[in-house]
Fold this protein.
Amino acid sequence: MQPAALRQRFVLPPQWNPEFRVEKKFLDRVPIQASVLLPIVMRDRPTVLLTERALHLSTHSGQIAFPGGKAEDGDVDASATAIREAQEEVGLNPAFVQVLGVMPHYVTGSSFIVTPVVALITPGFTLTPNKDEVADIFEVPLDFLMNPAHHRHHAFEWEGVRREWLSMPYQDETQKNTPQRFIWGATAGMLRNFYRLLSAS
C-alpha cells in the first residue's frame, strides 16, 4: 500500500487477470473512449480520492466515481485524458500527479470503454469541484478498499438476464455526520481489479 511498493507493481507487473471487464449494456450507442484517474493520495495512511457525481447528469448521476471522462482529440494518450479531466472536474493541479501506469479497459453498460490510470497524488493540493459535474469530493483509505472483506457481491435476474455487480459501502467513522458512501458499479469493479493486481504473486 506504500508508494514504493505501488510503483514496483507497475515496473514489474505480476501475471494477473482482471475480474470485472464488461458490464451488461443498457445504452445502445457507439462506444466512447474514456479514462479515469485512480488517484492514490500519499498520506501517512494512503487514500483514494473519489467524487460524487452531480444529480442532473445524463449518465451515472449521483454515483461515486473516479475523476475522469471522454477522450478528446488533443489528448495524447489515456493518461492525458485522465489528468485533464481530473483538473476540469475537481481542480487537481497536474503538478501533484505522478502516473504509475494503466490497467485493462473496463466497458460500462453505458458504452464507455474506460482506461483506469493509476497515479500517486502528492499532498498539499487544493481542490475546487466543478459544480456542473461534481456534487462532492472525499477520500477513502486505500487499505479499506483493498480489503476483500469489504467487497460485497450482488446478483439479480430481470427478464431472464442475470446481472452481477460489486459494492464497497464506506462509513467514515472519524466524521460521524457524514453519510455512508455506497461505492458500486464501474468504480467498485475497477477497484476490485486493482485489488487483483496488488494481491497477485
User: Anything to note?
Assistant: The chain is about 20% helix and 35% strand. The mean pLDDT is 91. The first strand starts at residue 32 and ends at 41.
